[in-house]
Design goal:
Order of helices and strands: HHEEEEEEHH
Helix content: 25-40%
Largest sheet: 6 strands, antiparallel
Strand order of the largest sheet: 1-2-3-4-5-6
Radius of gyration: 18 Å
Shape: elongated
Number of strands: 6
Length: about 160
């Protein structure tokens, strides 16, 4: 009898793994050990995982429903009139005067692609990007069963 329940429990655990990884993807992506500051592993998720508004309360999240995914865009207009926009592979920062817009391009795995030209306002764009990452880290829902080790293994295998 006990063996039967162990088998049922084991199957139930294995079946819930993909759901756990999908619904807690932002938590796992922002809680990976980051040895390299050039990685923003949550950014690629914006292209296919729904980002709840309460994960980034200081920002506006625009959701575009696609056929099988949700495209998220994170926006903010600063107190000084500057604007920030984050999309799955692009960061855009526009100062108040709007003359020089800074673009930061990220690869499909969230790694920063070095720009050929160092732009004047790029540091502010990075500040916003780091702020979004910190808000998601603080506000994302913690999974009941933490599978961070599995997420890390999967992420390393796919890169």
């Amino acid at each position: 009898m006990m063996k039967k329940w162990l088998i049922i429990f084991g199957i139930a655990f294995i079946v819930q793994i993909p759901f756990n990884l999908h619904y807690h993807a932002y938590y796992y992506a922002t809680h990976m050990k980051n040895n390299n500051s050039k990685y923003y592993r949550f950014v690629p998720l914006l292209g296919n995982n729904y980002l709840p508004d309460n994960y980034v309360p200081s920002y506006q999240v625009v959701h575009q429903d696609l056929r099988e995914a949700t495209l998220n865009e994170v926006k903010k207009t600063g107190k000084k009139g500057d604007s920030f926009r984050l999309m799955p592979e692009l960061v855009e920062y526009k100062p108040k005067n709007g003359k020089k817009v800074s673009y930061i391009i990220l690869s499909r795995d969230g790694k920063l692609i070095d720009t050929k030209k160092e732009l004047k306002h790029e540091k502010k764009a990075y500040r916003y990007l780091n702020d979004v990452e910190n808000e998601i880290r603080q506000n994302s829902r913690r999974p009941i069963i933490n599978l961070q080790w599995l997420w890390n293994m999967w992420y390393q295998a796919s890169n």
